[in-house]
Automatic annotation (TrEMBL):
Keywords: Membrane, Transmembrane, Transmembrane helix
UniProt cross-references to InterPro entries, sorted A to Z: DUF2512
Top-rank taxon, per record: Bacteria
Transmembrane segments: 5-22, 28-44, 56-80, 86-104
Annotated protein name in UniProt: 4 TMS phage holin, superfamily IV
Pfam families in alphabetical order: DUF2512 (PF10710)
């Protein structure tokens, strides 16, 4: 559970302010969009892809997921998110995901040390 909460906080620090800045989103819709993205990215990127591959593959897939998700959310919510803003946000989220995956690896390594 702590891993998911860390992911939500890290994504929220990046995504909520950028959605508020770039789009017509209000705070509620920006927070809901961030939470939904975090859930999807956690389930797909961290629980499936990261466990089956490596950090680079999981990070790239999370960044691609961010592009697709933000494009779809922008279309559904009628936000004026252009491709430059979308790609910038996705790259920042990719960097955050890279840091998050390093956190997961370190956390898992520390857990293994404590069990031994």
């Amino acid at each position: 559970m702590i891993r998911f909460l860390v992911k939500v906080v890290m994504n929220g620090i990046i995504l909520v302010p950028l959605l508020l800045w770039y789009t017509e989103a209000n705070v509620f819709s920006a927070v809901v969009a961030t939470l939904l993205f975090s859930v999807i990215a956690y389930l797909v990127g961290d629980r499936l892809i990261l466990r089956a591959s490596n950090n680079l593959v999981a990070t790239v897939s999370d960044a691609i997921l961010a592009v697709v998700y933000l494009w779809a959310a922008s279309a559904v919510m009628h936000w004026s998110l252009n491709w430059g803003e979308l790609l910038f946000t996705a790259v920042l989220l990719g960097v955050v995901e890279l840091l998050y995956h390093f956190f997961l690896k370190r956390f898992d390594t520390e857990d293994e040390r404590e069990r031994a």
